[in-house]
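Encode chain A's predicted structure.
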Amino acid sequence: MKSKLGLDFIKVAEAKKLARNIAGNVQDFVKDYSTVASERTLCRLIGIDGVNADDVPYPNIVVDYLKEKNVLEQGVLFWLGHSIASTGLSPQELAEKIADESFDITKTEIQSIEKFHAALQPHIDKAVQRIKANRKKREDFIAYIGEGSKPYIYVIVATGNIYEDVVQAQAAAKQGADIIAVIRSTGQSLLDYVPYGATTEGFGGTFATQENFRIMRKALDEMGQQEGRYIRLCNYCSGLCMPEIAAMGALEGLDVMLNDALYGILFRDINMQRTMIDQYFSRVINGFAGVIINTGEDNYLTTADAFEEAHTVLASDLINEQLALIAGIPEEQMGLGHAFEMDPQLENGFLYELAQAQMTREIFPKAPLKYMPPTKFMTGNIFRGHLQDALFNQVAIWTGQGIQLLGMMTEAIHTPFMSDRFLAIENAKYIFSNMQNIGDEMEFNENGIIRNRAKQVLDETLELLKKIDYEGLFTALEKEFSPM
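Encoded structure for chain A:
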């Protein structure tokens, strides 16, 4: 595409090459390791589910047992495969026997490699076929009934009760939402297990569980039939159970997943080596399932100045793009993140926001970019907040964003009411329709504010990527955020 910003695509190519080097060095580490979460994911993918009498998930029980026996290094499938071949029991039956201490999986008879593979293959095939069927169902649904136009209108529900979430999600879909994100309960990203079953008592959101995924998927499919368009479901596979939740989402037909290890490292202090391993596996699953991943760069601008630190967002997007490509995610499934978070008192702030959004679109032309709304400078003044959201929506349609998380005028006051979502959706639909082709009509001055801003951010991004490439991502993150 021709650059309306006059971007130097030689510099863009250099930036992408640096990001590729950074991601490649990370992958050189990742490929040699697994984690407890990744091993639990393998348990789930071959059919182990449920909890024991103490509500401990069976995948945790199996992996923790092998860890305590100091044999987890051989991988959970090694022990399960040979045990299935030896006993004829299913993975679920083996997990239940390990839980009640009636079977020592580490004492299993080692079988031939042919018997080992034959024992595992039916369970692997079952999961693969289920995920493929979910992907085909989505594709067929969209081909038959259609979906909303881009930018997809994306809203959140966060009641803590999955059944109340369903009511609010269906109302939002009826009002015009294309994507419903069910916010996770506060702190779930730091739980080293996945809760089980339908949940009704989350804090600041609803627990991500496989049953909750099933309930919401069914509700949105019903609403999609009524409304005549496919409604996408979004949840969160970040944190300590990243690949497990990705697998659960794939098995239940989710469409979008928040999936970014850098967010967990920077904002949740999660072990960076562990979470990069988990991210790779989770993205392999999401890529295979046709799930759009959303990355978390918008969070950088809630803790740093959005004007001064814009280059950190672009640098992270570039690195995330390369890490996703390594995991097999096509560009069309990369909801790379950025945000409209500048101080509204900044003179010409709208022009700077427009420059950055256009720059991101030109650098990632195939990605369904995830554009995040103003939050940091929302004050409780609902009238100004509604105007800020309107400016945000104008930038989105002008620059061809892909996924638009709508701002709420009651941000900084309370969790949105259904009426707040209605006003936000009405705002976005009005602007998206009224300004539909503005991007086709407008050019930017060759030496104007917008072009110069984009050039500045790209130059600063290039310098940051050179530093990270020299030091390596792990070392750069450690140095930047160490209190020493």
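The mean pLDDT is 96.
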